[in-house]
Amino acid sequence: MEIRSTTDEDHGVFIDTLHTAFGRFPETTADGRGTWWSALEPDRGLLAVTADGRPVGTAAAYSFELTLPGEVVVPTSGVSAVGVVPTHRRQGVLSAMMRHQLAELRGRGEFLSVLLASEATIYGRFGYGPATRTRRLTVQRHKAALAASRAGGAGAGSGSVEVMRRAECGELLEQVYDRYRRAQPGALSRPHRWWDRRAGQPPTSPAPRYIAVHRDADGVPDGYASYSLGDGDTLTVDETIATDDSVFTTLARFVLGHDLVGKVVFKHVPPDHPLRWQFADLRAAEVGHDTDWLWVRLLDVPRALTARGWSADGELVLDVSDPFLDEHGRYELAVRGGVAECVPTDREPDLSLDVRDLGSVYLGGTAPSTLVRAGHVKAHHPAAAARADALFRTERAPHCLHWF
């Protein structure tokens, strides 16, 4: 079997093989735009091909930017379109593609890779760890009254809301999303290619949507909510993008006040978002589909740890194993003034952990002590977990809502 990179000429074969792996049939459009896969980058795909020339597996990567704690923006690869046709599963094809891809990413000089896992049991063995979570809130409209803010803040927003059709405001959405993602840890960029080719899911896809656009007191767009009203009485909000909590509250108040609606579903809400606390009825919002979202894989531990910002000073020795790549390293992490140094060391470790567990704590969404308690991470002395928690803790929880 051969693992090889794809070219423009392989596009049709790649798409057919990918869909065969998932038992689906590809959508067809006149110019190739508007399909979920239309933003694939032909030079970043992989095909697994048998000795007699049959394609049996696919993997791809998108060129994204990821926002790290401290509002640090770095390049990353978004791994996607991974599949093996049914006749060749459990024969090492997936592992071979993953190993080949990680080598390619390192060859490009990248130190991080991310993906969305179709199944939670697949990608841990390749070194990816779940790093962000998202949840769905369902609100019955008769319970949807928001309480008055007792201390100003998020409930006391100013500005205006305008309703537009998705087809009218693509450039505006692109600009607002880009402003938002640069300040949100865990957020991915949406390159212009995605908006131009209408790839992915709403609001980038061609699906008809209404967009509630929020403008500040000076008329500058600073948030939006993409929504649709289904055949029943449910209004579904694909995503709410806001530069601060008051803008989010204003947009939430708008959709919750929509006529002819029995309930409102917010599909992507950060687990720590204050919206639930803003209802007059604390039980108004039902939490559902609380799930992992972005998985992170460190390809170069020292570069990754020195790239992000830190909100506390301290030192930590990490003993990191990478079973999939058969690698092992021990690193001294020292943070001073929010800036980290990370170098190999022979000192006794504070924590021993797998690279996938380091991926889970990297963005600050999972406390190291949680993984110690779960039996994933070994703490070598009583203070180690608390010291790691203090270091990795972030002022703002990571969240990602981009689908790829």
UniProtKB/TrEMBL annotation:
Arranged from A to Z, the UniProt key words for this protein are: Acyltransferase, Transferase
Q: Which PROSITE patterns does the protein's record reference?
A: GNAT (PS51186)
Binding positions for acetyl-CoA?
Answer: 82-84, 90-95, 118-119
One example of the protein's molecular function in GO is: aminoglycoside N-acetyltransferase activity
Q: Which GO annotations describe the biological process of this protein?
A: aminoglycoside antibiotic catabolic process
The question of whether Acyltransferase is a record keyword is answered with yes
* Pfam families named among the record's database cross-references: Acetyltransf_17, Acetyltransf_9, SCP2_2
In this protein, which residues make up the domain named N-acetyltransferase?
A: 1-152
Q: Look up the domain of life of the source.
A: Bacteria
Q: Name the family the entry cites.
A: Belongs to the acetyltransferase Eis family.
Task: Give the matching NCBIfam families.
Answer: PRK01346.1-4
Protein name per its UniProtKB record: Putative acetyltransferase
Organism expressing this protein natively: Saccharothrix saharensis
